[in-house]
Every structure is written in structure tokens, then in C-alpha cells.
Specification:
With 314 residues, this protein is an alpha/beta fold. It is built from 18 helices and 5 strands. The protein folds into 3 domains: 32-162, Rossmann fold; 168-231, Helicase, Ruva Protein, domain 3 (Orthogonal Bundle); 244-310, no CATH class. The protein is 54% helix and 9% strand.
Length: 314
């Protein structure tokens, strides 16, 4: 018996800190108060245990998978989890066949699909009849805008809930939980903790992974921000070249310039450069914006960013 318990303890310690600290109840979820507030539709579903099919949309490490697993714990449905990255159509059909058998026996299946936007249109259509007749409750998690990444027919059968990126306050609370769980303080100054939260950029998983590495450092002295930055591999801000991150930052830059907010404009400009954006593309965006602000007709531009900038008249 003792060997079995020891093995179980070893296996638990082998799990990443982010997984071991995963909330066990909705009351432990941080940063998503807009969904969990008393009187909200989602809070009412938690109380009743009767959940609709849901698409959770949010950035990495904000709690999409955690929320889905908590839903499974608050419902009496059979829980099945798949990732759209590693699952094929055949895997879906097997789940649906089993779900139909369970449905005839009076049990519903709660199906979590991580990165659901990776499924193509035909694969997404497979869900429709099973959601429609109540065989499955679909919980999809995606980092992409569902309006563009998912079929309208699928969206019409699901409720889309937006998860916020974690605020600095939520990240600091997460660090405090990690310290309580591990049983010791992070060897960081208060300023260094803020630096760590800033580098996490709203990603709780990244924050806890970095905290786990810092806990393991053989040091008894407090680490300041400068030393922390030297120890950490530089993390690029959340960004992509053609998805939501790309257009959100361009929009933020536009709004800052239109609002004459110099500091904000410089921040978004540098963040795009730091994330690897093509400088000539940013230049083309700024030129077009200036033409619009001056009331001049916008010139016809080439589609590709590099060509677009090269074909401009300055």
C-alpha cells in the first residue's frame, strides 16, 4: 500500500505546477468575474447544472480548458476531451457513436474540443445533429475569433463566452497561491514580481511555469527585476501575422494616433516591432492613416505588405 501511495505522490509532483494549481471550483477562477458574477446567465447555469453548448474564446493561459473541466464537474454528463490538433474525423465519429448509446440510456456526453478552430468546415458540421438532439453538450475552446473561425450554423447552436486575459492583479494572486501551495516564498522583490507578471502578458500558464523554474533556483537571496530579466529567456508579446493579435494591435495603434495619445501610440508601435512585424508594413499603415486624417483619397495599394510599402509615393 505504501509503495502505491508513494508512486502516486511522485506522479503528482511530476505534473507541472500550473496543472497542480488548476482551480477545483469556479470560486477559485481568477480574472473572469464578468462571467461568474452573481445573476449572470453562466452563474445561473452553474447553480442549475444545466449548461448549453459553449464556445470559450480567449488568449492562451486565461482558463478556457479549466472552465470546461469545471463544467464537467458540475454536470452529470459523461466527460470526453479531444484536441482538434491531434484528432481526426474518425475520432469524432467514435465519440458520437458512443454518445448516442449513452443518450439512449439517459446520459448526455459533455465533449470538450480544445483548439476547435483547427477543425475544417466539414468536421464542424458533424457536431450539428448531435447538439441539436441533445446527445452532446459541446464545449469548444479557441484563441481565434469564432465569427471567422467557426461555421455560422455551429455558432447559432452555441453560446460564445469571451474570457479576459489575466490582469496584473489576477496574476499576482496566482503567484500568492503558488507560494502557499509550494510552502515557500518566491525569491523575488516586489518589483521583480511585477516584472514577471508583465512578461506573462496575461498568460497564467506561462506565469506559473516561470514561477516553478524560479522556485527551483538554488538561491536564498532576493532577485531584483534586472537579474530576473537576465535569468529569463525573453518572451515575445502575444502576436500573430494574420489573426486577432495582428489586427488588434493595428487597431490600437490607429485609435491612439486618432486620439493624439503619443505614449500609447509609441507603446503599440514598439510592441508590433518587438513581436516581429515587418517595419515597411507599419509604415504603410501610418501613411494610409495620415491620408485619411487629411481627408485625402486613399491610394490603391498592393496586397502584400512589402510590395504595398514599396509602391507608395512619398
Amino acid at each position: 500500500m505504501s509503495a502505491t501511495l508513494f508512486s502516486a505522490l511522485e506522479n503528482d509532483n511530476a505534473r507541472p505546477l500550473a496543472d497542480r494549481l488548476r482551480p477545483k471550483d469556479f470560486s477559485e477562477v481568477l480574472g473572469q468575474e464578468h462571467l461568474l458574477a452573481e445573476g449572470s446567465l453562466f452563474a445561473s447555469s452553474i447553480k442549475s447544472g444545466n449548461f448549453p453548448s459553449i464556445i470559450f474564446w480567449g488568449g492562451a493561459g486565461c482558463g478556457k480548458t479549466t472552465m470546461a473541466r469545471l463544467i464537467a464537474g458540475h454536470s452529470d454528463a459523461i466527460f470526453v476531451s479531444l484536441s482538434a490538433i491531434s484528432s481526426a474525423t474518425a475520432d469524432l465519429r467514435k465519440v458520437f457513436e458512443k454518445a448516442e448509446i449513452d443518450h439512449e440510456a439517459g446520459k448526455r456526453t459533455l465533449l470538450l474540443i480544445d483548439e476547435i478552430h483547427r477543425f475544417n468546415r466539414s468536421q464542424q458540421d458533424l457536431f450539428l445533429p448531435y447538439i441539436e438532439n441533445g446527445t452532446i453538450i459541446l464545449i469548444g475552446a479557441t484563441t481565434e475569433n469564432p465569427s471567422f473561425a467557426l461555421n455560422s450554423a455551429l455558432l447559432s447552436r452555441c453560446k460564445v463566452l469571451i474570457l479576459n486575459r489575466l490582469s496584473e492583479e489576477a496574476l499576482l494572486k496566482m503567484l500568492a497561491r503558488a507560494e502557499d501551495f509550494v510552502g515557500k516564498k518566491l525569491p523575488l522583490t516586489e518589483e521583480a514580481k511585477l516584472t514577471l507578471c508583465g512578461r506573462a502578458d496575461g498568460d497564467g500558464r506561462y506565469l506559473l511555469n516561470m514561477a516553478e523554474e524560479i522556485f527551483a533556483l538554488p538561491t536564498s537571496e532576493e532577485i531584483d527585476s534586472k537579474k530576473l530579466i537576465e535569468l529569463m529567456a525573453k518572451r515575445r508579446p502575444s502576436y500573430d501575422k494574420s489573426g486577432d493579435g495582428h489586427y488588434n494591435l493595428i487597431s490600437a495603434l490607429h485609435k491612439s494616433l486618432r486620439g493624439s495619445d503619443v505614449d500609447a501610440a509609441l507603446y503599440w508601435f514598439v510592441r508590433m516591432l518587438d513581436a516581429g512585424e515587418e517595419p515597411l508594413y507599419i509604415l504603410s499603415v501610418l501613411c494610409v492613416l495620415q491620408w485619411k486624417m487629411l481627408g485625402l483619397p486613399t491610394p490603391t495599394l498592393c496586397c502584400k505588405p512589402m510590395q504595398r510599402a514599396r509602391h507608395m509615393s512619398f
